[in-house]
Amino acid sequence: MWRGLSVLASRTTRAPSRLCVCLRSGAQSLAPGSTVFALSSGQGRCGIAVIRTSGPASGLALRSLTAPREPPPARSAALRLLRHPRSGEPLDRALVLWFPGPQSFTGEDCVEFHVHGGPAVVSGVLEALGSVPGLRAAEAGEFTKRAFAHGKLSLTEVEGLADLIHAETEAQRRQALRQLEGELGQLGQHWAETLTKALAHVEAYIDFGEDDNLEEGVLEQADKEVRALEVSLQAHLRDARRGQRLRSGAHVVVAGPPNAGKSSLVNMLSRKPVSIVSPEPGTTRDVLETPVDLAGFPVLLSDTAGLREGVGPVEQEGVHRARQRLEQADIILALLDASDLGSSSSCDFLDTVVVPLAAQRPDDGQRLLLVLNKSDLLPPEGRVPSPGLPPHLLLSCLTGAGLDDLLKALRTQLAAVCGDPSIGPPLLTRARHQHHLQACLDALSQYQPASDLALAAEALRVARRHLSHLTGGGGTEEILDLIFRDFCVGK
Ligand SMILES: Nc1nc2c(ncn2[C@@H]2O[C@H](COP(=O)(O)OP(=O)(O)OP(=O)(O)O)[C@@H](O)[C@H]2O)c(=O)[nH]1
């Protein structure tokens, strides 16, 4: 925890954006002079808990709790006896760190108290801090909001930090860290610089016309760069769903005829008894969802009713819901009983679901993995008695044979659906990013220097403004409220 906080504390300061300035002037919580404190490590009993403060009275808070000792040198840990400033009662022997602003996470004076993690110690230190004049308890996300207001983090970095705190799988962590490290923001800045350069060229042309002083081909060069930028933005927009899926989880739906072993597979992949398994066909009647970490990717895994016709009204409703869920799936795990491929329900499922999906190009939308379960029931030579089946995997939920291959195939499909956060350019992770890029592209479609140079320059200005919204330059407080509400108290 300390290392993370301290690494963040060493970030360099950027010029605050217009949005930051509006934040600083508008938000009551950031009124000049306010100093906040909170428990920044998790709630509950633990070895060490980190309590921190941010604001001009941080130094006073440190001196009040550690008197008569002097504060330690900046950014160096020192052991101190903490006492209640009013009663003088000893509270804990703790490590304290002093981060004078602007070289701190928030850009303000900050203190970290690394105390023993018992509830009585934590509440005693919080109570002691509350008794120091000028200090108050922080609101959720307030430390990060202050870091943003002081230009320490861009908006995309704030989003990356929120995602990192909420990351539950390896792939989510990688994507969030890349965004926190500023890769998406840098890409946005690079795009904005391209537009600034093009705008400078167009404006020079407006001012000097065919003047001898102007280099030849200035307008052509600007045009080339704007068109290349359009191509790049379009490519990122095409990929946009992937980054969002990685944040929220890909939908993987297990479907197939009754009794194929769908519930057994869902239980095996989620490693918990989510669904009832029974030899009676038609046991699962509704869609059962469970969030799982599959090969490092976040997945919402759905078990569905077995697809068959001519059943009673309750099961029919289950079949209807299963079909609806299939339409929303990113990946369909189509499951058949390998020992029962000739049954009418297996043939129907193959004809109506598997074959049409298998004929699609994978990048057209949904992805299919055909799995033949109950391979343990096949004759010893293990061959599937149905030539002409689309590519498939063999599995036995009973013995676990074939599970490694299935996980490998799922990983490949999930990386295609969510994007592989370890490689390639940073992905757009929120609808907000998509919106600003689309608005930028719409503005660029009005860029027609051959017909009207003044209008073309205006199109570039509007496009650049939309790009600056990506990293938090100009905008409204509502965006911030939406983003910061993802944070917990103490962050
Ligand atoms: N031999 C064998 N039996 C299996 C295997 N997988 C599941 N079964 C059995 O097949 C039966 C049906 O399994 P379920 O997982 O309930 O199948 P389902 O597809 O969810 O069934 P419905 O809810 O009717 O759609 C149960 O008796 C399971 O124990 C397997 O790999 N091998």
TrEMBL record:
<dbReference type="GO" id="GO:0005525">
    <property type="term" value="F:GTP binding"/>
</dbReference>
<dbReference type="InterPro" id="IPR004520">
    <property type="entry name" value="GTPase_MnmE"/>
</dbReference>
<keyword id="KW-0547">Nucleotide-binding</keyword>
<dbReference type="Pfam" id="PF12631">
    <property type="entry name" value="MnmE_helical"/>
</dbReference>
<dbReference type="GO" id="GO:0005739">
    <property type="term" value="C:mitochondrion"/>
</dbReference>
<dbReference type="InterPro" id="IPR005225">
    <property type="entry name" value="Small_GTP-bd"/>
</dbReference>
<keyword id="KW-0809">Transit peptide</keyword>
<keyword id="KW-0496">Mitochondrion</keyword>
<dbReference type="InterPro" id="IPR027368">
    <property type="entry name" value="MnmE_dom2"/>
</dbReference>
<dbReference type="InterPro" id="IPR025867">
    <property type="entry name" value="MnmE_helical"/>
</dbReference>
<dbReference type="InterPro" id="IPR031168">
    <property type="entry name" value="G_TrmE"/>
</dbReference>
<comment type="function">
    <text>GTPase component of the GTPBP3-MTO1 complex that catalyzes the 5-taurinomethyluridine (taum(5)U) modification at the 34th wobble position (U34) of mitochondrial tRNAs (mt-tRNAs), which plays a role in mt-tRNA decoding and mitochondrial translation. Taum(5)U formation on mammalian mt-tRNA requires the presence of both GTPBP3-mediated GTPase activity and MTO1 catalytic activity.</text>
</comment>
<dbReference type="GO" id="GO:0160236">
    <property type="term" value="F:tRNA 5-taurinomethyluridine synthase activity"/>
</dbReference>
<protein>
    <recommendedName>
        <fullName>5-taurinomethyluridine-[tRNA] synthase subunit GTPB3, mitochondrial</fullName>
    </recommendedName>
</protein>
<dbReference type="InterPro" id="IPR027417">
    <property type="entry name" value="P-loop_NTPase"/>
</dbReference>
<dbReference type="InterPro" id="IPR006073">
    <property type="entry name" value="GTP-bd"/>
</dbReference>
<comment type="subunit">
    <text>Homodimer; forms a dimer in the presence of potassium. Interacts with MTO1; forms the GTPBP3-MTO1 complex composed of homodimers of GTPBP3 and MTO1.</text>
</comment>
<keyword id="KW-0342">GTP-binding</keyword>
<dbReference type="GO" id="GO:0030488">
    <property type="term" value="P:tRNA methylation"/>
</dbReference>
<dbReference type="GO" id="GO:1990234">
    <property type="term" value="C:transferase complex"/>
</dbReference>
<dbReference type="Pfam" id="PF10396">
    <property type="entry name" value="TrmE_N"/>
</dbReference>
<comment type="similarity">
    <text>Belongs to the TRAFAC class TrmE-Era-EngA-EngB-Septin-like GTPase superfamily. TrmE GTPase family.</text>
</comment>
<feature type="domain" description="TrmE-type G">
    <location>
        <begin position="249"/>
        <end position="415"/>
    </location>
</feature>
<dbReference type="GO" id="GO:0070899">
    <property type="term" value="P:mitochondrial tRNA wobble uridine modification"/>
</dbReference>
<keyword id="KW-0819">tRNA processing</keyword>
<dbReference type="InterPro" id="IPR018948">
    <property type="entry name" value="GTP-bd_TrmE_N"/>
</dbReference>
<dbReference type="Pfam" id="PF01926">
    <property type="entry name" value="MMR_HSR1"/>
</dbReference>
<keyword id="KW-0378">Hydrolase</keyword>
<dbReference type="InterPro" id="IPR027266">
    <property type="entry name" value="TrmE/GcvT-like"/>
</dbReference>
<dbReference type="GO" id="GO:0003924">
    <property type="term" value="F:GTPase activity"/>
</dbReference>
